Predict the 3D structure of the following.
Amino acid sequence: MVDSVGSTQKLHRTVLSWDYWEISDRLDSDGGVFDQLRAVPATFTSVKEYKEVFEPLLLEECCAQILRGMEEGEVLSPHRAVVGAAEQRDDFLFVTLVVEAGCSEMYSNNDLVLISKDDPFGSNPNQQLHLIGFCESHSGAQGLLIKTLVAEDSQAGNVKGSQRVKAMKAGLQSKGSTWYLLKLSNMSTITREWVALQHAHLCPFADILTTGKPRALHESRHLDIPPGMKDTMESLCNSSQMDALKAGLDGTPVVLIQGPPGTGKTRTILNLLSVVMHSAHKGALELQRSGVGAAHGALKEEDHVRLWLKQSHWTQGKQDPREVIRPDADGGALPGRDCFGLLHTAAAVRVGKHSGPKAHVLVCAPSNSALDEIVIRTVKSGLMDRAGNMYAPSIVRVGVNVHHSVKSRSLDAVVESRLGGDKDGSNLSGPERDKMRIAVLDESTIVCSTLSFAGSSMFYRMSRKFDVVIIDEAAQAVEPSLLVPLVMGCKQVYLVGDPVQLPATVISRRALDYSYDQSLFKRLQTAGYPVKILNTQYRMHPKISRFPSKHFYGGQLLDGETVTTDTRQPYHNHPCFGPFAFYDVAGKESSPTGSASIQNKAEAQMVLCIYRELLHRFPALRMNASVGVISPYKSQVKLLRDSFAAALGEEGARLVDINTVDGFQGREKDIILFSCVRSLKKGRRPGSIGFVADERRINVGLTRARCSLIVIGNAKALQVNGNWAGLIYQAMTDKCMYRPRAPYTDWMASVVEGGVGPVEPTETEVAALEEISKKFWAKQQDYQLQEDAEVEMDVLEQVEEEDPGLCDEGAGEVKESTGLAPQKSKDGKKRKPSSAENASSKKAKAK
Ligand SMILES: Nc1ncnc2c1ncn2[C@@H]1O[C@H](COP(=O)(O)OP(=O)(O)OP(=O)(O)O)[C@@H](O)[C@H]1O
């Protein structure tokens, strides 16, 4: 059983022993809380080793999260607080701090706080008395119950630290003494991940998690999709989707489904839900088949299933067969409810030898938005019953920030509707309401929760385990976060995601260095675990999908039959508007004062110019927000937003969605303008173009457009990278590379009118690009960024020799990482590591 209290105590002992100012200094000097971090290997020898690798990485990340608020200027001002009461239990001192009226609401349970004698923003804060505390609960209108660690040995022999703790203990025990209280960060998610990690041995697939090897399977476990459902599904799904849907029917406990952009991941998840709930052993399906008929025949069919279930449960001495006729939790929402209630409850014959008559499925995702997409689509389209007809399943969405369109499916709304007719319902006490919530979770067929929320205490108190867990965006979660739903136990897990897109956001640079951002999906795939790939995309015009298919999916990504016609647009009559075009702008990158990010003014002007010309010629584009502008760099995003607002007014600028590549993951637009920003810079490490070279970021950036992808970048600067060289090669040979000349407005008008054509590449240019691509592909077999950088280095030297005039002066390069928060560098400037930097750091360590 999961002991969340015991393991949380262990986490608190570690985190509350940290000296806030000391860890802050250590992180500044590139040291972290742990000296001995280990890179995440592809496989582990034991669960013990698994925990030993992940624990310090999780704590390192926790440390970075605590410091992030202060670094990003996000922490609130400190509040004055007075000690109301204090009580010591074991090594912990529980202090009630009373804050001014209206301030206590700014703190939540599980917040980490800094308690200090003087203003923490005053001079020499590290010299003050201070201690990290954990907000346990609210106490009255203005009180906060704060847990602190006051064991003097918690400072590991640090005499100064022990003296500080001793003085803090005495101070906090003095009723009426005054302090400053500063909120640092919330610990809910980290705590749930930590608890899950401590219980990794309870994960039913711990052997697969550690060895990365599939299990031997038993023939008797094999289930089949009911024929009616199968026929309908085959008419809606392509063969790779069908393969993915069938992948778990043989009882495979862990199924990996990789869905490149636009390949129908969500559609597959919805169908998977139907399959998981209605597939059955051959015997049951034979019985069902013999009863298939008209409306009354459906009931007859149920009788057969019920008989079969009765018999099988009687022989197995398992579940009470009366369960079979229990209506679905929310009573179903279809006309003819009685009939359907019985039909789809009894019909949900899942299956597996021991799982009872109805599957209990948990659907998770790292983000609320991904989760809501599934809930919205499930509610809108319904699921498929055995006969291939759609029905409204019993589904409940747990957690906060539920999308307004599915609010009626939120746990609290379902509880309220249960209490609807009950006059006494509104008088239910907190614990009674909690019991009701847990009952709803037990009874609902499908429960949807974010990964983090699946670790809330409600889930641990459920009496009915989940049979199947389906995790969407599984490649965008760190491994401990994926463990959260798994340690509660289930029979099967489906991980759906795409490791070739952006991974989880990890803030700690050190944890990134040791591959903490790598998902379980990616690790298992690297270890050779079988993966089902959805291989047909329905989003992008084939001229857009060609490059990502070749470069990121080994040429396996095919185009849906109708995608060419579906994405054809009148603006394609002007090749400068796509489906694919590259504008080679020789602008200069620069860092605005006080920013670690970079921008490129010439590119911003070009983007605006293309957008205006598009809207001028195709006013229909004004009708819907069909254009997106993206850039890898936050500074460029800001510059673009400002330029659009200045040129088009707030109203006009609202029509276009401008965001970072990371912010666009999972989204699509008809037209995407992608500003790459990087330019040639003398003095920069040859061959480096920072994090715009991260292939996962390139992949996401280039796969957001449905109809037209227009890239604006400096070809010479970008082509030092093999992937970019490939894209530029495609633009050159497809005759859709343009070289703008100032003034851009006039030049653009003549391009659209056909006065200026695309670049006619010289043989030397094409040969050079081919050469880079060839070298790059030769290394693709065993692709490592570091090796790639060596290729890039040769090429950049060659480019600089050819055209030194294109290189501008500049010092060392500015880096941005996949993480959101900047880390301070030794010189005190905020900075982020690039993935290339991470890779080289890993390599250095390996050496
Ligand atoms: N087998 C199919 N036949 C025709 N169209 C399909 C098929 N599968 C998916 N689609 C269509 O492809 C589009 C993308 O599907 P879906 O949203 O499920 O993909 P996704 O992989 O979740 O997308 P994303 O990459 O944004 O996560 C939708 O318009 C969907 O209707």
